[in-house]
Structures are given as C-alpha cells and as structure tokens.
Design a protein that fits this description.
This protein is an alpha+beta fold and about 230 residues long. Helices cover about 55% and strands about 10% of the residues. It is globular, with a radius of gyration of 19 Å.
Length: about 230
C-alpha cells in the first residue's frame, strides 16, 4: 500500500486550514488541506511501518497518521490543535467524529509554552526581515498576531477559537502593510503579555487527558485489526 493510498482510502478527518479557516482569506489565498488517516493495524506488524505523515495527493495537502497526530496534539502543537477546530470540515468518519469529540482532552496549560515558543521563533524571522529588507513579510505578521490572540483567549476561556473575529479588519490591514512595524510589534508584545497574565488563572488543566486519548487510539487500532481479520 503506497502512501497516497493511505490518504485516499483511510482518512478519518480532513479540513481546510490557513487563511480560509481563520476568516482572513483573499482572492489569492491557497486552499490548505490538512488530514488524519488511520493506517490499517496489520501494517504495523511488518518490519517497515506505515508513514507518520504524507504530503499530497493534492497541492497544499498534508496528513498525519492518527497516532502521530494525537502525540503532537497532546504536546499542544499549535498547528495540530488548530486543525481540530477548523470550521471548514471536508471529511469526517465515525473515528474522526470521536477524534473531534476529544478536542477538550488535548487542551492544557502546555499551550502557553508551545504557542509562545512558536510565536517567538516567528517574531525572530520578522525582525530579521525588518533588519535586512526594511519591512517584515506582512502576511506572516498578520498570522502571528492572530495566533497570539488565539493563545491569549484560550488561556482566558479554556476554548480555542481560530477565527480572527473582531480583529479581522485590522489584521487584514496589517497584511496590506497599512500599519507600521512599530505599531504591529507593540501589538504583538501586548498580546504576549496578556497571554502571560492569563496563565495563572486559566481554567485549563495543567496537563492534557492522556488516558482518554490513549483509550481512543487503542480502540481505533483494535477495530482496524478486527476488520482485517
């Protein structure tokens, strides 16, 4: 079974991500598809294991095997957690429905570390652009602001919202380069500080619910094995 066949025949959940999911799309925006596939259990009985991720078959499409996806979500990987909250679902099977029902089990205060660490790396790249070219990549600045706002609100409410919401027009102005870098950088600093302030009183648990996720994954593997037998 080749890698693309795994995506074609065994996807349990797929969605559109990026600007379209965030409410920030323009006519030029790509359609970024992200998915999760459940590799048939017998494939793990071989020396050569199934891939943990697959690119394609469509342009801008990337999928993870269910176990890898769950591992990354438990670590509060920002991109993975946001996949579980896309409003633009393309495909969902009963296994995918159960995965979505576990969205809350993946959320924890770990998100503060992972989101802000990711944001710091992106901010460093933007600063390098300013030093080298006089201006940042405004599209990347827009997406970083949205991520920081999402992190702050997650820590405040315990819910992950990926839509730009009330900040949409101002964020699109950033993308068009209509706000100066000093103003944008100040906004980023404010959001980072607000996220830090929200951490102590956050309703999120300290750790995700590993047991619930592991139980789900084990049952999915067993069901897959039973079908093969």
């Amino acid at each position: 079974m080749n890698d693309l066949t795994l995506v074609r025949d065994h996807t349990v959940y797929s969605c559109v991500m990026g600007s379209r999911a965030f409410g920030l799309a323009t006519e030029a925006s790509d359609t970024d598809v992200r998915g999760v596939y459940l590799a048939p259990t017998p494939l793990f009985w071989r020396f050569e294991k199934p891939p943990t991720h697959v690119e394609g078959p469509r342009d801008e499409e990337f999928s993870w095997e269910l176990e890898r996806f769950c591992e990354l979500a438990l670590r509060a990987n920002p991109n993975i957690l946001e996949c579980l909250h896309s409003p633009l679902v393309e495909r969902v099977t009963p296994v995918g429905e159960e995965l979505l029902s576990l969205r809350g089990a993946f959320l924890s205060r770990r998100a503060h570390v992972t989101f802000t660490r990711y944001a710091a790396g992106q901010h460093g790249r933007l600063l390098a652009d300013v030093r080298n070219h006089g201006a940042p990549r405004w599209k990347h600045a827009m997406h970083l602001l949205r991520l920081l706002g999402s992190c702050r609100d997650l820590l405040r409410t315990g819910r992950l919202e990926i839509d730009a919401g009330a900040d949409r027009e101002r964020l699109l102005a950033v993308r068009r380069g209509e706000l100066g870098w000093a103003e944008v950088d100040s906004w980023m600093s404010r959001l980072t500080g607000e996220a830090e302030a929200a951490l102590a009183g956050s309703p999120l648990p300290a750790e995700p619910d590993h047991a619930r996720v592991e139980d789900f994954l084990t049952r999915a593997r067993r069901s897959s094995a039973a079908v093969a037998l």
